[in-house]
Amino acid sequence: MLASDRRTGTAAPGRRRAAAVGGLPPVYGRRHYLTVAVVLAVIALAGAGNTGNMYQISVFNTALTASVATVGLYFAYQLGGMFAFSQAAFMGIGAYTSAILTPEHGFVFAAGVALIVAAVLAYLLAFLLRDAKHMYFAIGAMAFAEIAVLVFRNWEVTAGPTGGGMLYGIAPPSVAGYEFATSGQIFWFLLAVLGVVLLLSVLLERSPLRRHALAVKAIPQVTESNGIDPRRSAMTLFTYGSTLGALAGVLQAHSLGTIAPEAFEVGVAINLYLMLLLGGVGSMWGGVAGAFFLTWLPEFLRPVKEYETVVYSLLLLATIVLFPNGIVGGVAWLAEKVRHRRRGGRSSGVTTHA
Amino acid sequence: MSNFVALLFSGLTLGAIYTLVSLGIVILYKATGIVNAAQFGLVGLGAYLAFWASTDLGLPLVAAYLLSIAVMALVGVGLERLAYAPLRSRPVDSVFLSTLAGGFAFVGLIVLWYDAEPRSLASPFGLETVEILGAPVPKHSLFVIVVCAIAVAALSWAFNRTRMGRQVRALAFDRDAARLQGIPVNRLSIITFALASAMAGLAGTLLGPVAALTPEMGLSPMLFAFGAAIIGGFGRFGGVVAGAVLLGLVEQFGGGYISTNWREVFPFAAMLLIIAFRPEGLFGGEARARL
Amino acid sequence: MADRFANRKRALKAGVGALLSAIVCAACGNGGGTGTAAEGDGANRPLVLGSVFALTGPQSQAPYVNGVRFAVEEINAAGGVNGQKIELKEYDDALNAQKSASAAQLAVSEGVDVVIGGPTAIQTNAAAPIYQRAGVVHLNMASSTAVAKDESFGGDRTFRVVTPMPEQIHAAAEYLIKEVKVKKVGLLGLNTDFGQNALPLYAEKFQAAGVEVIDSKLYPQDAKDLTNELLAMRGADAIVDWGFPNQFALATKTAYQNGMGDIPHLGPSAVGIVNTLGLVPVENRDSLIGMSSCDPAADTRPHVQEWAKRFQARFDAVADASAASGYDAVQLAKAAVEAAGSLDRAKIAEALTTLTLSQNTMCASTYKSDDRHELMHEAVVISYAKGEPKELARYTAAELAGTGRKQG
Q1: Any stretches that span the bilayer, and where are they (chain B) (predicted)?
Q2: C255 → chain B, closest CA residue
């Protein structure tokens, strides 16, 4: 049973059916800018409370980078309907392009070029696979991803000083002469970037593009007869999502200082998917929540590290079976129960404080 | 010339293994509508089971292989009972992801059981070779090809000639109508799960002596197996076999005559292009998978 | 109305979700300690040693971990360092860069003085700058990374404990050229930085000695078939195969099947693992030759043989080169602290640049730093015929030091 079904007994049939297919993403109003601010503020506070501790900050940084990638995945997958198993490869495209161009051209220029290159490649891939659906797209994206990793490994341009695509000594990000050298400084930089990404994404969510995308997913025949090319919006969303992935790669390269082809293999993309799934596939906030949760989980599991993979997978299966709306959905469900009880809803006269 | 022959046989061997994995996926899909992306975990499990049977239990190799396949069939039944029910009602995308996660759960179990150190599974034929047209061909390769051919023939016969096979085909065509006809849907799905799992196990035991045993050994073959299924139109067995062999040969000949370190680009590029331009497969198979 | 409802719920949801994560993070934040641990001379506190290897992930580096543990146990049993027992903290970096960075940060925040770290480039490239910035002394076990003291990699707190890869390559080439007297050689390598870096170096050395390089092929990491590569090696007097255990085993078997089972098949220290784990049947190991910093199984020094027996009894596993290196790394840390007379990290690093350790060492016979903070310059060539390690040649520091530097 899904949260949306429980909300009131009178959910419209269309919503119910749509909800059964994985949940309609919410309608976005202006209040969402407030949400962006809230999320950023919370992360900022948590981070600021820990700036003395480099370890905590480094995990935060990893989570922030992953969030950018998962938000991108949300757009490509949930709205665009495309299994973007190529997300890690695009991270790699962004990372390598930026790492190679930075020494001569500076961070901002290099990052910019990286995003443009990624966007072009993403659009081409989406165009190439425009008629492929679901699993076919997934396999095609995986094939692309494997080819990309091979390029990172073999191409002289990406080879690096010791060959094999192993790059190290990548400069930290620097904007307008200010270098974000320490982990703490990188934290604020990453937070700012995530903020920009979230704002941009909310903007996109409020645009007609999103309505088109949702319509295409739910009622493809009708939209087509209305003159909306169903594939156009999916391709645009995939391009946007993959470009965000490239941005995440840029951030990763410059905050860790080193990259290798292994960091961008298909397994990493599957991991990002798991983050989105756990966090809640229905919204970009799910991407952020899942990224943070799954970045912290292995750190928690350090004492029992051998069981990590098993815990991971079981958690995932439990999520898919029991909590299809992920963390965000679970929180929503809790919030509803609270609201329901407070209103003295359909429950018996016993009031419990949830 | 002998180079060509050597590459031909190694390509056929890889193709045979991809075929086995792919058929497992396709059969399961036809009977239950589930695309099982956990197959790679099952391949690894099959290989490690054979290793365990031959080292810890001390069984002779062929017996170890058979034991592994039998156990994998049971694992398949277990999967059907435990994991199938909650998945049945979910949309296809969700199922694909869930089974993918399930595959990693199997990998995790293997790591818990045997850790990630490389292990070696021997072949009943050791390293012996046979000379064909001037090239030394490992007997194990011939063994793999023959076993695969037998498996394909057996499955083909089962699906086209037996009553059970007809029932499965009816099931694939229209599940509800089949149920109304009195076809034992549940029993069939148990059988196909066991079969698919056993095939994955078989693929693992045959792959073991070729490469080496690592927990994630099935991931890359499964990717090619999906490719083969797609090339074959996700329908006829013949198409799947042709697709798998094609990918194996493209990889080996591409590596041999063009470039070794770019070797894997060739089959992946082939997959990408076929999905882009001929998603219904190269062999005009049945209606594309209803995805 | 439904809209506003949804919006407020969204904000609430997102806020609570983020808040939960943040609270959880803050809660575990208190356990981590502060960023800079006491750097005093610490005559009153024990040496804190960090061991950072891959405990989970695609490879298991248990031998290194056990080597380090064993050393700590034996040293502590004999009284410790400066009268204080060593405090050992172990960390897992799962063989990936992000985990390595966070493991390094964790080690730093938990007050590690000297860290002994992972043998592959992936593990150390991300971690080395972190240790350097924090002033922690870093004993690096990776042979294939950049020069220890190089600032794009480490700095004045970074030292390498194993023989650098270029020197190992020089030794291997010398062996093939002078001892085996090859005229034609085939080169194989793993298609990662490990192999890509090595093969050109080999080619250079062979060509300079007038040996013909028949072909040079790189193969992928999960290669399931190496027929093509081995066929390209036909006609060679020896094959150099610079890869990891799985692929090396596969290549050996394929070589055997293609009638090349009698020519020397020389690889890096991974060959020792091929032997120990039995990845190639015993009867097919005649061609196996490994180039390593050391190999306790073939070492004739009595104290090493006794140590290997104790190790076997303690861990129920064969003591290999990794374990020996790990063991020696701890001994180096001890020697440096004793020479420095304190736990001041700058002094420890300083001591490492000047000390010589040659007593009771299990891997090298002597550790002494050169100007690039490389502590070991020895190599041995081991044959694994019939599964019994036997030393074929030994190269000393005098012969190898400096051969790793690029000309001009």
Answers
A1: 6-29, 34-53, 59-83, 95-114, 140-159, 188-211, 223-250
A2: B127
